[in-house]
């Protein structure tokens, strides 16, 4: 009661007790503090009470669920309606459905439509702003923030719920959506300097049929890899480490990387790309990285022979190790620290061997390694267990050339590869049908190249379609007609050559299912007169062919024409002389001109050979020049050395002569000394004086003179003494 009185007293103006104003003020402070503390405590308790009903999950951008959730969120209208944004740009595949949607929505038209990828600005909610999304009867509070220490973006999801199921369900849904979106893509991961893997890119799948190898090779590799992935139990039952290595070796540009890409696409594997020559690579880091590669993935080591900065064989490695054992422990530690600081690649062969199949090595992964120089690899690295299957890649054969040609050009009847699967090319029927087509090489004319629809998008859509037939397929009437109309334009071709009928008849024929073998865009009016044909120039090989490039451009071939052109193409291609990459380069030059590509193959081979000879000559010339310069330098050095040696010899000789002279002088002196020794005299007072022959007299004279001087001095002294005596006596007298 007293306490209450005490508290209330100041409020009623001190009427109750009549205390001083200072005491009243203090009472106010105490009351204020108490109220504020109570407020804070209760608010904290309340928020803790509320938070106790929340479940919170954090997703770091380093982890896959972050990508799944971001993908899921990007499709949520609430996220898109967010009122606060930050922008970012990224490359986007214009063929992806999202990109297409966005294109439709966008108000500004883009000039990039002809390119497959371009950058677009995407909006994402700003950091630290919370968005509420209603999901399956729950309100999710989602915040994007930056982790203060790791500087990683973190997504925080909070929800009021009694069990974790809602969050698990959310992650599962996000994952499904993400996988559905990337079903036509493979994901690439790359190693970082901290011993972890980072999601780095997605790539479109590559059809296995687009890689042209010797018959059966890729099929065997794929079958082996597939079989391996399904045999975990078989391996564990026999105690064999569940690992498989593939070594692809051979000339550059022969399809090693392409095959790996196609296998990963075929088996739907994520690819973990490891650069062994990365500056931060070390034995420990490699072991750490390979130890955490998930099961059922592919690890790719490219250019294995170029991996080591220290040694390429185990002997060298051991030598390095033995020298380093001589270092003290302290030295080693210092060296290690220095290496780490300098980011120096310290990977050794033994480190790689251990990481590949040591005790700590991961299991269940496919290892693919490529090299251009298998002979440079240590046998231990190549041995089964580490590299179980070897595939050699050589220069292209004729059969490969033909298959590549067929893959390159669209065939009306052939299927085309689109969005990760083969679709029937129904360009002429005005639609597309998805179909399960065996893509293990049995497809003819499969290609990603332009269908009629694509031709339209290339700016030829408004052109009338006309058909062209082979000469042998045309009736006499058609031949006549053709020769009277546009034969001047097309010329007459022998086998594989093309005949054009009038645009009218072609248009009608192209609609009939039995018509034309070769469908091609019609000639624009400006080109339908001979004057529009580019004038033949002797330097332009194509212009000398009996057809014009414009007419041959962007054609869809029928099976028969394709067969003929492919055979012609292969005929002109020499076996085992050019790589597939070179061949692809040539075909790319004529990517919409199958006839030109087939007809000019021989000319290309000739020009390539000439180029090769020219390059070889230039290389030989450069080598000869280098050798000549080296020889001249050597000769110059030799001459300079000889000159130096001669000068040295000369000075040596001079020195020797001087030495001799000196010796002679010394000898003479000694002789003189000896002689003068014999002539030495003993002076009267007993001192022996050695005098030289010439100087003797002078010395003697000087000696005599000195003696004389001494005598005189003696006399003088005596005189002085006498005079002093005299002076003293005179002084005495004076006194
Ligand atoms: N056998 C092949 N079939 C189809 N395309 C090929 C083939 N070989 C090479 N190419 C093409 O040539 C280019 C280079 O091929 P790729 O990178 O696969 O060669 P590589 O053997 O890995 O070369 P490197 O040894 O220089 O890395 C690619 O664009 C690929 O499409």
Q: Your description of this structure?
A:
Pfam families: AAA (PF00004), AAA_lid_BCS1 (PF25426), BCS1_N (PF08740). Residues 29-211 form the BCS1 N-terminal domain. Residues 312-339, 614-684, 692-708 have a biased composition (Basic and acidic residues). The protein is α/β, with parallel strands linked by helices and 735 residues long. It has four domains: 2-50; 53-101 and 116-181, no CATH class; 197-319 and 341-393, P-loop containing nucleotide triphosphate hydrolases (Rossmann fold); 398-532 and 544-599, no CATH class. It contains 25 helices and 21 strands. Strands 8-7-10-11-12-9-13 form a seven-stranded mixed sheet, with helices on one face. Helix 10 packs parallel to helix 13, helix 15 (398-408) runs antiparallel to helix 21 and helix 15 (398-408) runs parallel beside helix 22. The N and C termini lie far apart (140 Å). Residues 211-213, 252-258, 370, 372, 393, 404, 580-581, 584 line the site of adenosine-5'-triphosphate.
Features:
alpha/beta, binds adenosine-5'-triphosphate, single chain, 48% helix, 735 residues, flat, 4-stranded antiparallel beta sheet, disordered C terminus, 4 domains, Rossmann fold, 25 helices
In short:
One of its GO terms (cellular component) is mitochondrial inner membrane. With 735 residues, the chain is of the alpha/beta class. The protein contains 25 helices and 21 strands.
**Termini, distance in Å?**
140 Å
* Mean pLDDT metric: 70
Structural class comes to: alpha/beta
Query: Strand order of the main beta sheet, please?
Result: 8-7-10-11-12-9-13
Bound molecules: adenosine-5'-triphosphate
Instruction: Write down how many β-strands occur, each being a DSSP E stretch of 2 or more residues.
Output: 21
Helical content stands at 40-55%
The total number of structural domains is: 4
Q: Beta-strand level of the residues, as a percent range?
A: 15-25%
Q: Helix tally?
A: 25
The backbone outline, from C-alpha atoms, is flat
Biggest sheet character: 7 strands, mixed
Rg:
49 Å
Low-confidence stretches: 89-121, 309-314, 427-554, 690-702, 721-735
């Amino acid at each position: 009661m007293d306490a209450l009185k005490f508290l209330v007293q100041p409020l009623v103006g001190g009427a109750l007790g009549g205390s001083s104003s200072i005491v009243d003020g203090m009472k106010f402070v105490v009351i204020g503090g108490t109220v504020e503390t109570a407020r804070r405590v209760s608010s904290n308790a309340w928020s803790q009470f509320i938070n106790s009903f929340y479940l919170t999950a954090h997703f770091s951008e380093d982890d896959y669920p972050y990508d799944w959730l971001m993908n899921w969120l990007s499709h949520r209208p609430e996220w898109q309606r967010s009122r606060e944004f930050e922008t970012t740009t990224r490359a986007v595949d214009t063929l992806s459905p999202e990109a297409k949607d966005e294109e439709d929505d966008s108000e500004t038209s883009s000039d990039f439509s002809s390119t497959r990828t371009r950058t677009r600005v995407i909006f994402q909610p700003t950091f630290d702003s919370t968005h509420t999304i209603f999901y399956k009867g729950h309100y999710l509070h989602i915040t994007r923030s930056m982790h203060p220490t790791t500087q990683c973006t973190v997504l925080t999801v909070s929800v009021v719920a009694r069990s974790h199921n809602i969050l698990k369900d959310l992650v599962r849904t996000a994952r499904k959506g993400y996988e559905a979106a990337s079903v036509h893509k493979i994901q690439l991961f790359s190693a970082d300097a901290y011993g972890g893997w980072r999601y780095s890119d997605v790539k479109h799948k590559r059809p296995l049929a687009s890689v042209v190898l010797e018959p059966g090779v890729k099929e065997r590799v794929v079958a082996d890899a597939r079989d391996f992935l399904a045999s975990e139990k078989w391996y564990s039952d026999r105690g064999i480490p569940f690992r498989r290595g593939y070594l692809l070796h051979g000339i550059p540009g022969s399809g090693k990387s392409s095959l790996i890409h196609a296998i990963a696409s075929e088996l739907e594997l994520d690819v973990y790309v490891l650069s062994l020559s990365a500056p931060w690579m070390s034995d420990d880091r490699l072991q750490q990285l390979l130890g955490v590669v998930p099961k059922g993935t592919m690890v790719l080591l490219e250019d294995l022979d170029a991996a080591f900065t220290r040694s390429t064989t185990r002997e060298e490695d051991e030598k390095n190790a033995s020298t380093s054992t001589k270092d003290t422990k302290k030295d080693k530690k210092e060296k290690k620290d220095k290496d780490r600081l300098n980011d120096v690649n310290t990977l050794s062969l033994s480190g790689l061997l251990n990481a590949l199949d040591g005790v700590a090595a991961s299991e269940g992964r496919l290892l693919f390694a490529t090299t251009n120089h298998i002979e440079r690899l240590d046998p231990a690295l190549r041995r089964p267990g580490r590299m179980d299957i070897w595939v050699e890649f050589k220069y292209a054969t004729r059969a490969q050339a033909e298959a590549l040609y067929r893959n390159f050009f669209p065939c009306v009847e052939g299927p085309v590869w689109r969005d990760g699967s083969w679709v029937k090319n129904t360009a002429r029927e005005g639609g597309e049908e998805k179909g399960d087509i065996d893509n293990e090489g049995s497809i003819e004319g499969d290609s990603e190249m332009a269908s009629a629809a694509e031709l339209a998008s290339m700016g030829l859509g408004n052109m009338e379609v006309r058909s062209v037939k082979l000469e042998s397929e045309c009736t006499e009437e058609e031949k006549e007609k053709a020769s009277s109309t546009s034969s001047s334009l097309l010329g007459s071709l022998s086998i594989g050559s093309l005949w054009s009928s009038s645009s009218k008849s072609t248009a009608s024929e192209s609609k009939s299912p039995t018509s034309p073998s070769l469908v091609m865009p019609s000639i624009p009016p400006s080109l339908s007169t001979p004057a529009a044909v580019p004038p033949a120039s002797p330097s332009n090989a194509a212009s000398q062919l009996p057809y014009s490039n414009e007419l041959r451009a962007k054609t869809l071939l029928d099976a028969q024409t394709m067969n003929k052109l492919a055979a012609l193409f292969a005929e002109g291609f020499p076996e085992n002389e050019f790589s597939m990459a070179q061949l692809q380069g040539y075909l790319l030059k004529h990517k919409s001109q199958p006839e030109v590509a087939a007809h000019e193959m021989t000319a290309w081979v000739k020009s390539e050979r000439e180029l090769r000879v020219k390059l070889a000559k230039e290389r030989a010339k450069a080598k000869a020049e280098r050798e000549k310069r080296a020889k001249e330098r050597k000769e110059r050095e030799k001459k300079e050395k000889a000159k130096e040696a001669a000068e040295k010899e000369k000075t040596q000789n001079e020195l020797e002569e001087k030495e001799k002279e000196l010796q002679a002088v010394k000898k003479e002196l000694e002789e003189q000394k000896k002689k003068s020794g014999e002539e030495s005299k003993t002076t009267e007072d007993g001192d022996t004086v050695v005098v030289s022959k010439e100087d003797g007299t002078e010395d003697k004279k000087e000696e005599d003179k000195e003696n004389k001087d001494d005598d005189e001095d003696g006399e003088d002294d005596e005189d002085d003494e006498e005079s002093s005596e005299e002076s003293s006596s005179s002084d005495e007298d004076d006194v």
